[in-house]
Amino acid sequence: MRGRTPGAKEIDAALERKVWLESGAYLIIDHTEALTVIDVNTGKFIGKTDLRHTVLETNLEAASEIARQLRLRAIGGIVVIDFIDMDFEEDRSRLLRRLEDVFQPDRYRARVFGVSQLGLVEITRKRARPDIRSMLTRSCPACGGGGWVFREDTIAMTIKRFLRKVSFANRAEALLLEANPSVAEYIFETYLTLWEAELGRKIYIAAAPDFAWSKFRLEAQGGVDQVERRIEQMEKREARIIVYRTASS
Prior knowledge:
The protein is an alpha+beta fold. The protein has 2 domains: 8-136, no CATH class; 152-244, 3-Layer(aba) Sandwich (Hypothetical Protein Ychn, Chain: A), CATH 3.40.1260. It has helices at 8-15, 51-72, 89-103, 132-136, 152-169, 181-190, 192-199, 224-237; strands at 18-20, 26-31, 35-41, 77-82, 110-112, 120-125, 174-179, 202-207, 216-222, 242-244. The strands form 2 sheets. A 6-stranded mixed sheet has the order 1-2-3-4-6-5, covered by helices on one side. A hairpin with a 5-residue loop joins strand 1 (18-20) and strand 2. The radius of gyration is 27 Å and the shape is elongated.
């Protein structure tokens, strides 16, 4: 692709949460402050014989790829791997031998602990340098690094409580609120008519393109004509803005 620097594809791959294996199985790699967790899934791989051998083949293939990913991503510290459950001790022993083999040439000393009956394996690997994820990424400004955001309905209820307080504080005929575009559309489709009936106010919801997920703001309040003029000014100033109204507007 034009404009991509050399190695960009490899960097993208090293940051992916999901890693596909050649068989069609895949890994999910999650990071926390304390450790790295890797989940092994059969995915599209159905095997060639019975379930036991499918599980074993998937786990063995995953073991090799996990060793490669830890080196590629410079992951150190504690790594917990959730392999697919194996019912036979012979299979667990074989997986453990594979793990010992694939980590043997690792320049940063790795220690593999036994395979539990539930398929959990703990590995400790010497941390020699920052992992690639911490070097190339930062915490999400939308979720504060928590990895999640409030659902639209949760934000909508927060906004409703806010509008109720505003309505009780004054007798403005109309209210103009700005919110994240996805949240604004959700409120329009789900609640706007109900809120107007409950609060006895004309409510306009402006989709503000630059607003973070949970951000909202009361932009204007007053008579309907006054708020409509404010909306016209906003639309002239910002062509991308969308203002949601109920059918009675």
